[in-house]
Amino acid sequence: MNFKKLTFVNKTLSEIFNNNIWLFGFFLFLLFSVTIDGFSTRENYINILYHSVFIGILAIAETYVLLAKRIDLSIESTAAFSGIITVWLCSNSLYSSGLKLPIWFSLIFVIGFGLLIGLITGFLVVRLKVNSFLVTLASYLFIRALANEITQGHTLTGLPSTFLFVSEPTIFNIPLMVFIMLGLFAFFEYILRFTVFGKHLYVLGENKNMAAKMGINEAKISYSVFIIAGILASIAGWLIVAKEDGASVFIAQNYIFEVFVAVLIGRISVNGGKGNLIDVLAGCLILSMIKIVFVIYAFSPYFTDIFIGILIIIIASINAISERKNASVFYKKEQS
Amino acid sequence: MNRIKAILMIVFIVSSLVIIVSSKKKDNKTPILCYMTSGLTNGFNIQSTKYMEKFGEKLGYKVKILNANRSAEKQIQQIETAISTGVSALVIKAVDNKLIVDVIKKAKKKGIKILIYDNIIDGCQTDMTSVLDTEKVGEMVADECIRVLTNKYRKAQGNIFQIMGDLGDMYSIGIAKGFNNKIKKYKDVKVITKDTPHWEGQDKILDLELNKNKNIDIVFMHSDSHMTLLTNVLKKHKYKQGDIKLIGTDGDPDALKEIRSGWCHATIGVPVVSQVWGIFNFLKSIENGKTIKSGNYLIRDLNCKLVYKNKSPISYLPGIVITKDNVDDKTLWGNMHEF
């Protein structure tokens, strides 16, 4: 019997059952299923999962960075570049490279690219002490522009059929990509909970001085979170093009906003050191449900953007108030 | 306490599932038709949407408008949701006619009628496509260009700067094909062609060209939506009305305005109302499983040509040449100011 695994499963289940976000998610699910015509179909339930795959993977990336009290705006562009470059390297379309490289090479290439972006960001943030917001804002701009420069803004299609091994298979009619996302959530949640790295990440995000006193290597952790974010973003981009059999210049556009909604619903603190990926998964699913309801009611995309903007403000405010409240309770306890 | 919470949670989930499963299906007698528009940022799309609603409801459909706001990914997700929530027909104005192929195949498998508007989708079977006969439009523009050049030089000679749209868009490809095929017969007419990915930056391309080339007689762009911007570029380079003739396609209100002001020589107008009706004209027959024969049909007083391509019927509508002589015609969509 693997007790460590059992503990992980038990802890995960208890986290779900004791959690208001999941409760809220189930409430919305029930409400939409009963009240909205066309919502309660098997295909639609699968769509809720399917439409949260890419945002979900990017949300894992952003969660790691936020836990370290940093921010990464470049994950959207890293995903876009990885997607576009994958099609450029592998497809036989008019504007591709003509190299027709194999699928495994493209995956290694984009992972390498994500790693490189993470290293550069880490170097600028850790060694040169540049603010992570500014660094990743700059890379947000130039990485996508770089991809568009390579393709001259054209849509690239014509991926080899080998990509169908990723996009086509289903297990119980649920696309493989959903299981890839859930697997990544489980793996990275495991790292957060049960590894020294995870514990150090929380300590560093919560209190930098304490981390220093404990001998935690801040530079190493900061490098690691940016590298993890880069790699996950590049995997997300690779999966997007596998699903869509091509890439346009608008690939993954505005995903960063949805990622922030998901992590904020998932109660990840922008002040670092608080939150977990189980809640973030709930955040992704809630967001996915809301987006599907908007499609069913045929709301305009402008309304959707207004809603997302307002949602970010509301959730961020709720999180800030609750953090302040928790801090004051902690202070009173300390005093007494 | 935690155990009680867990039990409550399980009861809640189970009861939710029971309610969902046992909830009676609502009355779905009114079939739903979704019009998936690529965006609503230009007059043509807005006008098309208006008539989609009008004609769809006239035929007894509940019409839903879904705006992808120029995102192919968003459009694909919208179609996936529409499939899973149960629609009878999808009318699609595709953001990207290549990326959309897979999801159309998925919808077809579910028995949903697929109707394509204003674009031709290759690589999958569809139930009807209603488009402007773009090759014919290209030929009409070529005729107009030859008329302009002959008036200017007394013979067909001169330089035309052709600004295409996105090379992934069959609309632009069709226009260029018709135009180039016709114009190549005139050996003294030189055509310089540039494309604009995603139809953006037409004004910048013209600006760059005018910096190095002062011998352009005609600027022909495959869309009217940047007409005013192009006029501004000509003004910036100190040209006056008529020095360089602008010719466009669409019949956009901006193009009509520039025809009146003398900057634009002509545009080929799209018969929006007929093109939308081209979708609905055959819809009942399609639903009843009837095969639509190829041939010529009269669609709202316009002769359309119906042909089969990859086992999919395509209805081609002719364009209308708009010059200063007929620019105030109230039936042109660019003059319908209700939107």
Description:
The complex is a heterodimer of chains A (336) and B (339). The longest helix of chain A is centred in the C-terminal third of the chain and has 35 residues, at 301-335. In chain A, the strands form two sheets. Chain A has a two-stranded antiparallel sheet. In chain A, strands 2-3 form a two-stranded antiparallel sheet. Chain A is mainly α and 336 residues long. In chain A, helix 2 runs parallel beside helix 14 (277-296), helix 3 crosses helix 14 and helix 5 packs antiparallel against helix 6 (103-127). Chain A is 74% helix and 2% strand. In chain A, strand 2 and strand 3 (174-175) form a beta hairpin. Chain B folds into two domains: 32-126 and 272-315, Rossmann fold, CATH 3.40.50; 134-269, 3-Layer(aba) Sandwich (Rossmann fold). Chain B contains eleven helices and 14 strands. In chain B, strands 2-1-3-4-5-13-12-11 form an eight-stranded mixed beta sheet, with helices on both faces. A six-stranded mixed beta sheet of chain B has the order 7-6-8-9-10-14, sandwiched between helices. In chain B, helix 7 (202-212) runs parallel beside helix 8. The mean pLDDT of chain B is 90. Classes of the chains: A mainly alpha (336), B alpha/beta (339). At the A-B interface, helix 1, helix 2, helix 3, strand 4 and helix 14 of A face helix 1, strand 2 and helix 3 of B.
